[in-house]
Structures
1.
Amino acid sequence: MRRVRDLSIVLALLAVVSLVSYRIGVNEGGRSGGAPFNMSVMNRVKSKLTELYLDKEALDDKRMMYGAVEGMVAALDDPYTVFLPPQENKSANEDLAGEFGGVGISLGYKDKNLAVMTPLPKTPAERAGVLAGDLILKITDKNKNVERDTGGITLSEAVELIRGRPGSEVTLKLVREGKAEAFDVTLKRESIVVPSIELEWMEKQGKKVAWIKLYKFSDRLYTEWPEVAEQIKRESNRSDFGGMVLDLRNNPGGYLEASVLVASDFINQGVVVTQESSDGKKEVYEVDPKRRMLLAEKMVILVNGGSASAAEILAGALQDYNRGKLVGEKTFGKGTVQKPENFVDGSGLHVTIARWLLPNGKNIHKEGVTPEVEVKYERDEKDVKKDNQLDRAVEVLLSG
């Protein structure tokens, strides 16, 4: 199945041109805001550093080359457009594949501050009570001799610092809305395997309710979702079938096409999402007519501040088509598209290429999707398995 891969070749090649030009000393022209992109400045700076810098052993050509490219990309002032040196790019690819070593946090930004987008299920972060929306002020790892404030930190740098050997510890200083002071959380790293989906059956008020926990739109979902949809369809013929709760809480997104696949089982026809690029070109993703398996079954969609990107697209589309009520909290608000490019040296470029528009034309970036039934999550320290948002979602489902 095709993934989102529509980036303008010019932007993707810009990093490659910079690398090559830097190594051979060629002046490459380009225009941005009327000013030429003059590589000779970079070459002169490199020459002066080589001539004058005190610590000659620190003049590592490869590190400086990567640093120059990172700086060029960072100048765009878009935290989601990043250049990743080889090791950071490897970590990013492991994350998308669904397996890595760490504490179970998906990262993003809130007003340019490093933030928890999602505490992943059944991980050290979730067990410690880390919540979506928590701001991360500092990362401390005594074994690595790391004590790093996060002001100006990139996602790749933060990921590299937080991940580590299973069994080792990392401490995060967090700020949470509603708490007056920052607080520390020490997490023991584990080997993290992120599932894409789980299905549980609940008995409520004499009805059988399907609880679909959709964790991430990863590669695995393309094979796992059709199996789950078929199982629910079979059970929906029972007289005691009460409907479905589609749980998108703390789902950080993933592949756009995977969210369209899921939407196509709930929506009869029409546009799921439109992708609009900077040149005004629009690519429309419509319902797959070969799916449409669960069109009549009652459903409710659970969301929260950790529902982001493709998860918001799915929730917003279902809301626009009145397919089911949204319950929970306002979603994260990430409505831009990043295209990954991998280079031969192992480095990579993630660049914002477009914005996503819901069927009603709304762009959710920095806005999010607001549920019809707002319920703030209340953690019960005496019974951590208690879930007041899920309980309310089931009530809405069975009362409809």
2.
Amino acid sequence: MNIEQEKKEIEKTIQLFFDGFDNFDASLILQAFCNDKAKMYSAREPSGKKKINETPVNYWVKIFDDVKNQPDNIWNKEKSIKNIVYIDVSGRAAQAKVEYIFSAYTYVDYYNLLKIENRWYITNKTFDTIYNE
């Protein structure tokens, strides 16, 4: 496959995440990852101390499942605008930058991906929340 074909295959993996996010379907999100122990990383600075939050995807989707029962949560009130900002492919490794834009904030995700047995999987996700002004 050429690079453009590989990017289209990666977009299919990212679409699984998008569909799972929009439909509160944890099974779709888990299909996008290489396994249920893949990690999600974010930075937090409680009390001025730098800290990295490391969350296994199987734990995150349990929290995600709880959100669908919270009608006041922004994820229930509005659908985000989703953009794939870029996909960079190097052989069987790739990275994608994705945005989930809500009225109050934007999630910016960086997915690291590997092609395993002819399919692209997210191996980990690093993200931050940017508050819209």
3.
Amino acid sequence: MDKKEIVFIDANIFLELILNDAKAENCSILFNKIKNQDILAKTSDFIVYTCLLQIQFKLKSIKKAQDFILFINELKGLEILRPSLRELYDSTRFSEEYKLDFDDSLVIACMKNNDLDLLVSLDKDFNKVPFIRRQDP
């Protein structure tokens, strides 16, 4: 990953770390690079909300939700995008065209609108989108 290139971070990368799943260590390394601004990254507020909902559902912990918000705030190399109505609309097209769920199609719309093509995600469904380069953390 070229440190000058901006990457988009999918929800499953945050959740991998939060839930201490199999690739949590790799995600931790990635987030340390983002925190130190060695890598610049973007994600969407929708992804942040998704993570908070998963924390509430799986961990049932307000403290973990608060810790996640503080963690996000410490990632100095991370910009949180707010999808526009245009991106929401475009996501419906991408959902139909690539047979993706709303979450994934919104990621694509945000990336396309922000001239991003590198996605860090464990979701291999993105591999069928020709203008997205997906990579594991």
